[in-house]
Model the fold of this input.
Amino acid sequence: MLYHGSCHCGRVAFEVEAPEDLAVQDCNCSICAKSGFLHLIVPKSRFRLLRGADDLTEYAFNTKVARHTFCNICGIKPFYTPRSNPDGIDVNARCLDTQPHSLSIEPFDGQNWEQNAASLEHLSKA
Done:
């Protein structure tokens, strides 16, 4: 299924190909818990930025592998390149404008990231 999504102000818009029934991860690490990000990790080939590249600001911390991208107008983080899957894109399911048929939310223990990150690697493989 092809989903459309955006930031709050709509300056950043994207589309992502994903199953009709989505399984997303709810991470308890500091940045995800504070932002309410629901992780939909896909291969880069299934993501396309439609507009707003010039409106994105990037934030990196700790190992600086993850590339957090925010709309510099409204401050929303609709997607980013995750540390667990640098070959993929992690879309915030809360930023999807097209709603999935069903959405299941799986907990992910990001507070113990080193022990659990490998369980996400398969998500960015085609």
Q: What stands out?
A: Strands lie at 2-6, 13-17, 21-27, 38-43, 47-51, 56-59, 67-71, 79-81, 88-92, 102-108. The mean pLDDT is 94.
